[in-house]
Design a protein that fits this description.
492 residues; alpha+beta; 11-stranded mixed β-sheet; 11 helices; 24 strands; 22% helix
Length: 492
């Protein structure tokens, strides 16, 4: 009898200590912002069959963990709120998350120019000192990690935006979020997940690759990974699995993306990969309308040839022309946009692939979001984007979208607004005939169009503008001060 009682007490002791405390992913934590006006998943892990309740903003949701110990509830749509609230999760233990706001959530991702921090960027001390934005919250995915299979919990924590928390956060992300917060006047949550020098493929999901017929090989490569597969930072899905998947399916409004330098020798293939990236993330975050705004590559004086006074754009480094073109063409993705930044290279150091003016990059990305996502239709979201050409004997007439109040020759210096140059002359235009020989062209603004010609080309068929790696003299803008995207009208 004594032995059986002892066994019973011992088994009770063991059972009580075998209960697993309920856990949450790191992205669900105190100080976070929850997305307004969308269903909000809250998820985590516990013992199989464990009863879970989640309470927030007058809602109470209940569920039971699966055989694998996984659970998820979905909060009904929430209204924006500046009032700090508490989210309570109860199972065998209780978790209380404090100081939660409801507003707009964006993920900020890409390679080094998105990773570039506030403390590394232009006017760093001034920006840091002024970063008192308690209604902006920051979640930075730390370190650079990768994995062959999707990971679940991840790393990082939410922080209130302050001079203490902002120095290491993405400067582009911060400039973007600050403008959104001030313009829309609601709380903003920013999630940074970046890795310098990386290609687009490791950020893309297997399902994203599979959604694009041209990329089935990458999809199969990702599918065939096991947990023993040794992956490197260039392999399909390897970074997504570790640095993005643990964030899913956190509810958010959209993504901003600054990447492409490491894919700089591509053209059409990058267009397909951009579709795969967006398709995959929209599926992973369970939001088919996830806004997606990216940055077209800046001018880069690779090899400092302009600085040396020896630029020959016909024979060197034209590859970023096709890459920027692929970024432009990807605007056929619904609910997307592209910030053109070819004019933001550092004037005194155009050979730096990391221009320090991140304020204008974030501002221009926010211009798209404000106009398209937040319905501020009075804004012009972009500089001129080529719409069509019309051949008129010895001239070619170009029409554009997003001309706004009209076109102008402009000059951009630092973070100052673009300055119109009434007596300025358009630069970086080329024209060619059927012989496919390119010549510098005269380009004249005619209302909201540009007329291009050259005495060396009697019967022109095509025009190019800023179609190479470092078009630092490009100066076509709309009167809103936003630059035209590089383009070509040929298919050679």
């Amino acid at each position: 009898m004594k032995n059986s009682i002892g066994v019973y007490i011992f088994s009770l002791f063991i059972t009580s200590f075998s209960w697993a405390a309920i856990e949450l992913p790191n992205v669900i934590g105190s100080n976070m912002v929850l997305q307004r006006d969308l269903p909000v998943p809250i998820w985590g892990w516990g013992d199989p069959g464990e009863k879970i309740s989640v309470s927030f903003a007058g809602q109470n949701k209940n569920t039971t963990t699966s055989e694998k110990g996984e659970w998820m509830v979905t909060l009904d749509k929430l209204s924006a709120s500046f009032t700090p609230s508490t989210l309570v999760v109860k199972g065998t233990n209780e978790i209380r998350l404090q100081n939660i706001l409801v507003g707009e959530v964006w993920i900020c991702s890409g390679q080094s120019n998105m990773e570039w921090s506030v403390k590394q960027s232009l006017n760093a001390q001034k920006e840091i000192a002024a970063a008192n934005y308690p209604n902006i919250r920051l979640f930075n995915v730390p370190d650079h990690t990768l994995h062959p299979i999707p990971q679940r919990k991840g790393r990082g924590q939410w922080e209130v935006c302050s001079p203490q928390s902002i120095p290491g956060f993405s400067a582009v992300g911060y400039a973007f979020g600050r403008r959104i917060q001030e313009s829309v006047n609601i709380p903003v949550g920013l999630i940074g997940s970046n890795w310098g020098g990386t290609r687009i493929e490791p950020w893309t999901t297997e399902q994203g690759f599979r959604s694009v017929p041209q990329l089935v090989h990458q999809a199969n490569q990702s599918r065939d990974y096991t947990k023993e597969t040794k992956v490197n930072p260039s392999m399909p899905s390897a970074i997504y699995n570790s640095m993005v998947h643990p964030l899913t399916p956190f509810a958010m409004r959209g993504a901003i993306w600054y990447q492409g330098e490491s894919n700089g020798n591509e053209g059409e293939s990058y267009y397909h990969k951009k579709h795969a990236l967006v398709n995959g993330w929209r599926e992973a975050f369970q939001n088919p309308n996830l806004a997606f705004y990216w940055t077209q590559l800046c001018s880069w004086d690779h090899g400092n040839l302009f600085k040396k006074g020896t630029p020959d754009k016909h024979t060197w480094a034209r590859d970023w022309g096709p890459l920027r073109e692929a970024q432009f063409k990807a605007l056929d993705i619904p609910n997307s946009g592209m910030a053109v930044i070819i004019d933001l290279a550092d004037a005194h150091n155009p050979g730096d692939i990391h221009p320090r003016n991140k304020q204008d990059v974030g501002w221009r990305l926010a211009q798209w979001a404000l106009q398209q996502t937040y319905a501020k239709k009075d804004l012009i979201p972009s500089g001129p984007l080529l719409a069509k050409q019309e051949i008129q004997k010895d001239k070619i007439r170009l029409s554009f979208n997003y001309t706004g109040r009209g076109l102008m020759v402009g000059e951009k210096k630092g973070t100052e607004p673009t300055k119109p140059l009434p007596d300025g002359k358009l630069a970086e235009f080329e024209i060619a005939g059927v012989d496919k020989q390119w010549f510098p062209a005269d380009a004249i603004i005619d209302g909201k169009q540009v007329v291009v010609s050259s005495p060396q080309v009697e019967n022109p068929v095509s025009v190019r503008y800023a179609y190479y790696i470092c078009p630092i003299r490009a100066n076509l803008y709309n009167q809103e001060g936003l630059p035209a995207s590089p383009f070509r009208t040929d298919n050679w």
